[in-house]
Amino acid sequence: MAFFHQICRGFSSSAVRAVVIKHVTIIGGGQMGSGIAQVAASTGHSVTLVDTSEDILKKSVKTIEGSLRRVVKKKFADKPEAGEEYVQKVLKNVSTSSDAGSAAQGTDLVLEAIVENLQVKQDLFSHLDKLAPAHTIFASNTSSLSISDIASSTSRLDRFGGLHFFNPVPMMKLVEVCGTSATSQETFDSLMNFSKELGKTPVSCKDTPGFIVNRLLVPYILEAYHLHERGHGSKEDVDIAMKLGAGYPMGPFELSDYIGLDTIKFILDGWRVMDPNNPSFAPSELLNKLVAEGKLGKKTGEGFYKYK
Ligand SMILES: CCCCCCCC(=O)CC(=O)SCCNC(=O)CCNC(=O)[C@H](O)C(C)(C)COP(=O)(O)OP(=O)(O)OC[C@H]1O[C@@H](n2cnc3c(N)ncnc32)[C@H](O)[C@@H]1OP(=O)(O)O
Ligand SMILES: NC(=O)C1=CN([C@@H]2O[C@H](COP(=O)(O)OP(=O)(O)OC[C@H]3O[C@@H](n4cnc5c(N)ncnc54)[C@H](O)[C@@H]3O)[C@@H](O)[C@H]2O)C=CC1
To answer: What does the entry list as the binding residues for CoA (predicted)?
Structure first.
């Protein structure tokens, strides 16, 4: 509950200067990590993408390549050779590693996009804090956890912030940049500049649950589940209604499958602990059942809908 009332009090002074981010280490090569890696590499940054196994990393690079090919199909419609050259040039900017510790040793920014679990994120950053250079900024792409809580596992509170991207990263223009009460102005400026270099539009937000977008999106999505569970509308009709009636590109069930039902469950379970009496966060039996069955949405081939 404390987190729900936590407000950033401003920036502390820092011993470090604003860091120009040239090399970025992205931990987590899933949907978000590979999308961020693609955009960072496309804008001339050197990227090391880290995940737990070489097999996962191979899949991540394949995803990046596939997404780049979608981009060049339009960008280089009349010049396929130039398009291929572009794909290869961008891919050259991406290296992979299954050793987060060594990847963090020569980097300007460690950006984490692993599972939405506070303890796992803290363990990762606590480990990397001992290995990364002093100037290196740490940032989390968390959807809903407290940046201050994640940062508390390190000794670089002034060089820690939130950098929240949106899915699919190559298409979505927004980045929420979050400084905590301990984040230095220099670190915040570095993260804002980095977001702009990626061609994104950054907004500044406070270290409160869901920042701006998810604070509004989570109750909306959960209400769609509850409406359906009460028998007041089929998934299909709810999705059509919100697309045609509210102008959203995807309805709440389609969007949930796109985000990943495991991530949504992590968020809801966490928020319910913080604010147990809030009806907006009441559990959804349907969501819990799908997650228990391993039906996590598009990434596993089935969620609210089937994709195979
Ligand atoms: C309880 C909730 C808690 C949530 C917490 C976790 C989540 C978060 O923390 C924050 C989030 O990210 S929230 C999710 C935000 N994202 C959205 O709302 C996406 C909504 N969907 C869209 O914008 C479009 O459907 C979309 C852009 C995806 C696709 O566009 P279309 O609908 O027009 O469909 P397509 O025909 O497939 O695509 C059109 C063209 O777009 C390009 N494209 C799409 N995906 C791409 C990708 N991944 N990489 C590269 N290019 C891509 C592409 O040009 C495509 O054309 P084709 O290649 O010819 O198909
Ligand atoms: N899915 C979405 O729409 C969005 C998700 N986020 C946040 O981004 C983060 C990642 O989400 P997704 O990419 O969707 O998840 P995902 O499940 O697609 O990918 C997570 C990746 O992290 C890897 N991983 C887990 N623990 C690791 C560790 N200790 N070291 C290295 N790699 C590790 C996994 O193997 C997996 O490849 C979460 O914190 C999520 O809340 C933020 C914005 C949007």
So the answer is: 67, 74, 143
3-state secondary structure labels for all residues of 158-169: HHEEEEEECCCC
* pLDDT tens-digit profile, the chain (308 residues): 344 433 333 344 444 567 899 999 999 999 999 999 999 999 999 999 999 999 999 999 999 999 999 999 989 999 999 999 999 999 999 999 999 999 999 999 999 999 999 999 999 999 999 999 999 999 999 999 999 999 999 999 999 999 999 999 999 999 999 999 999 999 999 999 999 999 999 999 999 989 999 999 999 999 999 999 999 999 999 999 999 999 999 999 999 999 999 999 999 998 999 889 988 889 999 999 999 999 999 999 999 999 97
Which residue is associated with the tokens 């363990």? Answer: 123
Instruction: Ligand 2 pocket test: pick from 32, 39, 175, 256 the residue with the most ligand atoms within 8 Å of its Cβ.
Output: 32
| Ligand 1 atom 6: residue of nearest CA | 143
Domain parsing of the chain, residue ranges? 2-205, 216-299
Q: Return the best residue to mutate from 31, 123, 258 for the ligand 2 pocket (most ligand atoms within 8 A of CB).
A: 31
**What residues contact 281, with CB distance under 8 A and at least 6 apart?**
218, 219, 222, 268, 271, 272, 275
Distance between CA atoms of 287 and 306, rounded to whole angstroms? 15
Kindly give the distance from the C-alpha atom of residue 297 to the centroid of ligand 1, in angstroms, as a whole number. Answer: 14
Q: Which residue is closest in CA terms to ligand 1's atom 25?
A: 249
**Ligand 1 and 219: CB distance under 6 A:** no
* CATH code of the domain occupying 216-299: 1.10.1040.10
Ligand 1 atom nearest the C-alpha of 222 is: 1
For the entire predicted model, the pTM comes to 0.94
CATH code that applies to domain 2-205: 3.40.50.720
**Angle at Cα 72 formed by Cα 68 and Cα 78, nearest 5°?**
165
